[in-house]
Amino acid sequence: DAKTTQPNSMESNEEEPVHLPCNHSTISGTDYIHWYRQLPSQGPEYVIHGLTSNVNNRMASLAIAEDRKSSTLILHRATLRDAAVYYCILRNQAGTALIFGKGTTLSVSS
Amino acid sequence: GAVVSQHPSWVICKSGTSVKIECRSLDFQATTMFWYRQFPKQSLMLMATSNEGSKATYEQGVEKDKFLINHASLTLSTLTVTSAHPEDSSFYICSATRPGGSSYEQYFGPGTRLTVT
After folding, report:
1. B108:A49 CB<8 A
2. A52 to each of A21, A30, A34, B74, B106, how far by Cα in Å?
């Protein structure tokens, strides 16, 4: 699977939008872009995924660049419970293991 | 959503003893489960892929004789850390993919914190 690059950390204030970037310049045509997050001392949880088009769900939005070499996870209104490590992962085959990079640690202040 | 449980949530054992960690898919049958290890301040590292009814596939550098994986049923996979040492202290996390459907989402357990004294 192709590699992703994310900032080590980001900070946000409560109630404000957060844009978490991810670069994946070597992405292949069949790679899906997945986002998971891990709250402290818990297992990761699914956030969102996409292939080419932007995606929205109840947790977040995923904006994918036209050339697919980068993407942005958008949390529309950050809450204290959104403080976590966010992982951007590429995977080209459903059902295979997710390979985690270092992720972005998001801090949210009140 | 689908639920994956782990037991125990934390365990302390003495050096040289063995510890078994259970991973259960509570509301679906999982033909494949994955085991990860996470050291403090680090990311998750894939240890092995566990397939129901067959031998697990281990990642490079993971000792299969030390980390015994058994996937005897479609809802249960176990990881046994044999002859545990302090350097095996870590957060162990399992995950499963529900067969059928889109299978894009992996469901993770809450993790088991192992401390070897």
Report:
1. no
2. 16, 10, 12, 34, 20
Q: Which residues contact A57 (CB under 8 A, 6 or more apart)?
A: A48
* Dihedral sign for Cα atoms in the order B103, A83, B49, B70: negative
Q: Say yes or no for a CB contact (<8 Å) between B97 and A32.
A: no
Q: Which stretches of chain B score pLDDT less than 70?
A: 1, 100-104
Ramachandran assignment for A108, one of left (phi > 0), alpha (psi -120 to 50 degrees), beta (any other) = beta
Nearest to A95 among B44, B103, B113 (CB): B103
Q: Pairing between strand A55-56 and A61-64?
A: antiparallel
Residue A87 CA to its chain's centroid (Å):
5
- Give the nearest partner residue to B97 out of A45, A95, A99, using CB atoms: A95
- Helix/strand/coil percent split, chain B, to 5: 5, 50, 45
If interface means Cβ-Cβ distance under 8 Å, which residues of chain A face chain B? 32, 34, 36, 38, 41-46, 49, 85, 87, 94-95, 97-103
Task: Determine the pLDDT at residue A33.
Answer: 95
Is B8 in a helix, a strand, or coil? coil
pLDDT tens for chain A, 110 residues long, are 569 999 999 999 999 999 999 999 999 998 999 999 999 999 999 999 999 999 999 999 999 999 999 999 999 999 999 999 999 999 987 778 999 999 999 999 99
